[in-house]
Amino acid sequence: MLSPVQRIMIVPLCRGEPVPTECLVTAVYTGCRGDGPANAEHAVRAQIYKLREKLSLFGITIETIGYGRGAIGYRVRPEHRQALAALLAKFGDAMVM
User: Fold this and answer.
1) How far is the C-alpha of 35 from the C-alpha of 54, rounded, in Å?
2) What pLDDT digit, counting tens, does each position of 43-84 carry?
3) What are the backbone angles phi and psi of residue 48, rounded to the nearest 5°?
4) Sign of the four-CA dihedral 31, 32, 38, 44
5) Own/partner pairs for 48-51, CB < 8 Å, 24+ apart?
6) What is the Cα–Cα distance from 70 to 29, expressed in whole angstroms?
7) What Cα–Cα distance (Å) separates residue 9 from each residue in 2, 46, 62?
8) H/E run at residue 63
9) What's the CA gap between 70 and 76, in Å, rounded?
10) How many CB atoms are located within 10 Å of the residue 67 CB?
11) For residues 80 and 4, what is the distance between their CA atoms, to the nearest angstrom?
């Protein structure tokens, strides 16, 4: 099951292109008071970690673009995009908790 935040984050990741961390922060926190907490990038990294754990059960990998805390973004491995699309099509909103 994906949390609502993870569901928001999965949409740009499905496209297969590298998604800058700041775009994920914007996607998650736009409209929030002050556009999110001061540690928004850390919160996004934590959600990516949890999302990776969940998707790995289905053989889907999210790659980090860059290294460690200097990561500039993320993407679903190109060869895993179809599996992710199929998973989302099959379960859709049922994946959201």
Assistant:
1) 27
2) 999 999 999 999 999 999 999 988 766 678 999 998 898 888
3) -60, -45
4) negative
5) 48/9, 48/24, 48/74, 50/3, 50/6, 51/2, 51/6, 51/9, 51/10
6) 21
7) 10, 12, 12
8) strand 62-65
9) 18
10) 8
11) 22
